[in-house]
Amino acid sequence: MLAEWESRDLHKKAFDMTYSWSLWDKMKDATTNNKGISGLVEYMAHHESTFPSGGYRMTFTDNHDKNSWEGNQYSNFGKGLETCMVLCTMVNGMPLVYSGQEAGLDRSLKFFDKDDIVWKDHPNAALYTQLFALKHKNHALWNGAFGGTMVRIYNDKMDKIISFSREKDNDKVIPILNFSNEEVTVKLDSKYEKGTYKDLFSGQEYLLKGDDILTLQPWGYLILVK
């Protein structure tokens, strides 16, 4: 059962899932509000320290309220939209795809009246397809207690780069996301993540040895999978 509200206590007796409104707010702060990533880091830490492990959080970059009253996915997240779409699938929770997002919806839909969506091929569909295929097969990304906890990986660009790992049943995922409009070369404190991984999107192999140096394009991301 889903509550259109955000409170950990709702999971105690009644609800299986709640809306993750605060993640949306922190992603907007990190992108078009230019407030940096501290709010996102705080969100993830708060989730792991206080949220019930069996509770599901609905993560999203758009939904019926946000789209109708606060703008569309592009106006809200700008060039950081794809980065936020990826983050919504990597953090603990169940990502929502709102009507038309996969077709590149770039306007607000009417809330109370019929408003047809123009369905067309769009890169968003391919991105969601890859992300959700990984989420289905990789146990680290499963929901609630069935998935892996988010463990922060420290780096030397903590004001721009979010890096963490999730691991479950011999599956492991390491998302590394650049929440800035600059190319960033980052050193990961990856001594506990040693091993060979493959990036979800490029298929390139990465051997992590500890203190690994990577370069990410503006708003770029790597999803290292094992």
Q: How would you describe what is shown here?
A:
- Helix content is 27%, strand content 23%.
- It has 6 helices and 12 strands.
- It has a 6-stranded antiparallel sheet with strand order 5-6-7-12-9-10, covered by helices on one side.
- Helix 1 (21-30) packs antiparallel against helix 2 and helix 5 (81-90) runs parallel beside helix 6 (123-137).
- The mean pLDDT is 96.
Please work out how many helical segments DSSP would assign. 6
As a whole number of angstroms, the C-alpha radius of gyration is 17 Å
* H-E order: EEHHEHHHEHEEEEEEEE
Structural class: alpha/beta
Summarize the structure.
With 226 residues, the chain is α/β, with parallel strands linked by helices.
Structural features:
single chain, 226 residues, alpha/beta, 27% helix
Task: Write the SSE topology.
Blueprint (H helix, E strand, L loop, with lengths): L1 E2 L13 E3 L1 H10 L7 H13 L5 E4 L4 H7 L2 H5 L3 H10 L3 E2 L27 H15 L13 E2 L8 E8 L2 E8 L5 E5 L6 E5 L5 E4 L3 E5 L4 E5 L1
Parallel strand pairs: 1-2, 2-3, 3-4
Antiparallel strand pairs: 5-6, 6-7, 7-12, 8-11, 9-10, 9-12
